[in-house]
Design a protein that fits this description.
The protein is mainly alpha-helical. Among the domains are: 89 residues, no CATH class; 168 residues, no CATH class. The protein has a two-stranded antiparallel sheet with strand order 1-2. A hairpin with a 2-residue loop joins strand 7 and strand 8. Helix 6 packs antiparallel against helix 8, helix 22 packs across helix 23 and helix 25 packs across helix 26. It starts with a helix and ends with a helix.
Amino acid sequence: MFRVEETGLTEGFFAGRDRTRVSLLHFADDTIFFSKASLEHLQNLKIILLVFGQVSGLKINLEKSTILGINTGQELLSCLASVFYCRVSKWPLFYLGLPLGGNSKTIGFWDPVVERISRRLDGWKKTFLSLGGRITLIQSSLTHIPSYFLSLFKVPASIASKIDKLQRDSLWSGAGEGKKDHLIKWDVVSRPKELGGLGFGKTSLRNIALLGKWLWRFLRERSGLWHKVITSIYRTHPNGWDADIVVRWSHRCPWKAIAQVFRDFSPFVHLMVGNGEGIRFWEDHWWGNQTMCSHFAGLYRVISVKNLTVSNVIGNSFPLSWNLNFRHNLTNSKIDLLQSLMSSLSSVFFSPSLEDSRGWSLSSSGLFSLKSFFLVLSKVSNPILFLPAKFLWSSKAPSKVWLVAHGKVNTNDKLQLRRPYKSLCPQWCILCKGNGESIDHIFLHCPVTIGLWHKLFNLARLAWVSPKNIEDMLVVVFKGLGNSLRGKTLWQIACLTLLWMVWQERNNRIFEDKERTEEMLWDLILFYSSLYASCTTGFRGIPLSVLQLNWTAVCTSKV
């Protein structure tokens, strides 16, 4: 196409002050051609496509094509469409699943995303999935459906809240009609798992992380057409690495939203000195915990030329040259600052044969990671670690035990506060038919549950005293089945399975009027613990029947 344009047969458009030429966008079999609204140019383009089809053996289906105009009259568009035997379309145009020419600040722009999420939640999926199934559905589908849009456009706050609400309602929904209890605040649910959440994250933060990916790619894809167009239109940042963050253009421009992420993105980018020719000595963050102009502000104020590179100031080899060029003689206090500066750079390392580069401080590889950026954005102020997190999520036990760790299971004492008309006997435990039902009682102090805990600890040949609350039980590390990977894994699974079976037995007695003996419950705990453990890598190749018969032997075996 470039050769054709040079002959004047067709002409695309030129973007920005550098007049970057854009003739077409092509991905697989989807192509957009840009041309002047000229009958002659369109006829030439049609001939080129037909010749290309004959040479390549591919069929060019003009009837499936559409033509759109920018500041072009409808009459002229219709005339041009007749040349191509194609339809006239209107903006926005959907290309590769994304709308071109739409206004991402409007609610209607995001309707396709909201509708797709709503459709995914309709029917049996919303009604009959267990809590674990709903968690998996949200993690695998609902958080990824909007990601394509979120990776390019800034989501309005109202749409982000709506998507979060759809996910929130999906998590707490279940069989039956009516209002469902949201047992844990969404702010907690959306946190990372180590802080007590499920790791969903908020849509607005996911949006920022996805947009930040373009800031990282901007530096590394200098030869790409998109990089050239952005640079031509918006220019570069004074640091010479990034695009200019000041964007005074139409609200329809996606890059304006991307540039606004720079403030969140830049603290986690560090510069790595090579030959020192591309890094500003004073303004860039390349050494220590902050920029030189911030750390040595007194010296920076008396420097005559500030916008100098590292190689300009200190060279790129030892001994350092120290070309600072002060405007006047230094006072004693500034001499002390200068000595501190020279001392701090005594261990700087140069690679004169390499160019300067950038790294991502949140990953060991130094490469940008969407997950790491998203997690750091999701961190809350003054975070408190959720101590049972590792115990809960490193096993294959049912996800509902997460509610037990938070103390948010609908026991009678909770129901009495939340919905008094549903808790008919708040001071009565269905298992022991004695004390009032609370989360600590039913999972720790109830005689039925204590009997099961004693069986588990006796199997591991450990003495046990019931802790005060369930959180302590999930935090204390018992090496009941040894210190091996198998022993730790099976012990965690057995503890969580015991909690799950106690809750199931409680519900069976209340809602189905069925009761199982302690021995029957213990057999079920042995079976399901063995079943869950057999799904882990540590027990790969061990038959379920062998594992179920002798836990201790399997966990201590080196085979």
